Amino acid sequence: MMPRGEGRALERRLFASYLGAFAVVIVIFAVAVRFSFESIVQQQATNRLETLARAGEAAVDWDSNDKFVVNEHSLGGFDVDPKTEGLEWFDPSKHFVTRRGHGPGGNIPPELGRHTLRAADGKYLVTYTIYLLNIPHNNAGYVRAVLTSDAFEQGVGTLDLGIMFGALLAILAASVGGSMLARASLARSEASYERLREFTADASHELRSPLTALSTTAAVALHEAPEMSERTKSRLVSIATTAKEMNRLVDDLLILARAGRSLEREMFTVHVDALVKQIVERYKDSAQTKSIKLEAESGSGSQVIGNPEQVSRIIANLVENAIRYTPERGSVVVSCTADPLNVQVSVEDNGIGIAPEHLDRIFDRFWRGSAARSNDGGSGLGLAIARALAERHGGRITVTSKVQTGSTFTIVLPRRPPSLA
Question: Roughly what angle, to the nearest 10 degrees, separates helices 272-282 and 308-324?
């Protein structure tokens, strides 16, 4: 299976991408519906106002002096809702004459123009000019139609509430769907990863024999023909060295391929404090060649349940990594502490450090950051192996670092793997 940390991170990224896409579509749709509905309501309000104004014109009669008289009981069969609608009539001097239904008040003069729509004190108004006997430019007064905002904004408010709850429900449904899609995608990825893991394990296993044969043949040739020329000897040494390096790379790939397997049949008591001391002793010579001070600070009783060889490999890889990237006359300190639940091993150095932008990638397989790390002669798998084996034991590895100051890698292993807890 895919490593637990990588699988969870991939599932979270897939879920976030699916949910984000769904949410954007839902929000765009909700906004489009909101503005479309508001536009329709506004148009309905305008039409209603114009209908009211025409009804107000139809209610005008003329006296013997050609002045209009409002017949308030004759609106062409049109009814005015006194709560939300109104009609107001004004003389040619814009003085208030009379009103029917709701209105903003006679002290507000009418606006000039036939189709003026505006908001005033929460009301929408349309003013028509009344022409004497319908003769253009023969102004006899004004009629103003009034519509309160409550007449249609209540509907808009109800729509807003519906859109809000609908969008929330849609996003909730999208989160469920996104989670299902993410899991389905992850299942396909895990199947592909499993096939790749099996291929890597099979290929690594098959490569071990020819590489071992190649290395052995070169060593035997060097031993059986000491009189060979230096040029030929150098070539054989190069072949043997390269075969040895490739054999180690194959072993590393085989470890990574098998890191996802269960620990059920590999359970032993591992004395981590003793392992720390052994590993420090093993790397003393490597540290001394660079005049690096290598020390161990371990307590007692630091025991975990797991695979002793793999726990040793986790610590050894971090120690080797620290020595490789610590300059001459530097120092590397390996410490071991424990609490009732976990055992913690820290490898601290004062080496070249790691740039902040590289911290998230140093555990990736074959990844190299700076030039100093690209030319170190390693395979680029040490930290990836350490993390994979730590996660196999239910643990984790964290790192803090500062460029040209040093790094601290911390391994946290549970005393008992989760499968046994």
Answer: 40
